[in-house]
Design goal:
9 helices; single chain; Alpha-Beta Plaits; 3 domains; three-stranded antiparallel β-sheet; 329 residues; SH3 type barrels; alpha+beta
Length: 329
Amino acid sequence: MERKAASSRKIYLLLVLFFIALPLSLDYLRETPAGRYLTWLNSGIGIGGTKITIINIVYLILFLVLFMFASRVIRDTLQNRVLSRTRMDIGTRSSFVNIVIYAFWILAIYTGLNILGINLSSLAFMAGALGIGIGFGLQNIINNFVSGIILLFDPSIQVGDMVQVGDDWGMVSRINIRTTVVQSFDNASLIIPNSQMLSNRITNWSFQDPKVRRQVDVGVAYGSDVHLVRDLLLQIAAEIPEVLGDPAPRVDFMDFGNSALIFRIRFWISSPEHWLTAPTEFRFRIDEEFKKHDIEIAFPQQDIHIRSASGLHDVFSKEGASPKLAHDK
């Protein structure tokens, strides 16, 4: 990673030097006898009362390259050096950084138009036409853009939150200007339009309080010591690091099932990240502890009691057995 970052910085530095040297060399050459061959630099197109020349475009490209480099430096500095030392959570830090970068982009667009020499008042007609186009063809894009701005200020969904979108689970990794990226447990990136994040039902398991309650059911055979079962379940809960002691776990004797006595232990975990790992570890420990204490984990079974059957007495007599059969009629 460090090598890639170093190579990227070298590339940016070379580009910056190239675009700095290019306009300076062009200005110098225009003052020389060879300058007559560079008259095309002053050619361009007119917009309103403004003439956009090739040299202005070169300066604009230079500015954008410098701005992209500066914005990346500002993003890395804010995320890794400044905001990481504060008490702000990861979602608030990400929203703050995105707002700062968006503000820089607005400033860059305004500055770029000034570099080209474009008067914003001369673009009033184009802005009106653009507004009509937005109203008809770009309404979904604008809707997602505005929704993205709302998500940046809305604490209900932030970067780092564990969310459930339909049947998919994942962690919010980025809130972009048009889409929200949710990284699923299968390492798939769910690209969700920002408007859907606001209009659809989203379950946020990390909102305000990261604690989550989980439960595990277990059935034991009839005749088992029910008090020992309860004590063992509470003991297992106390030994699993992800299970919180406050709120305390609780064991419920749910029902007398057809083949088992049904128990349910409810417990709280510290983070949605342990949604699957904590119950899985609980079931491993239940199987281990119940075997140590000779508690049978029940499974579906049926006992058949034969009260009468014609000819069955002769069968047992031939085998040397003499079962007592009750003949009920």
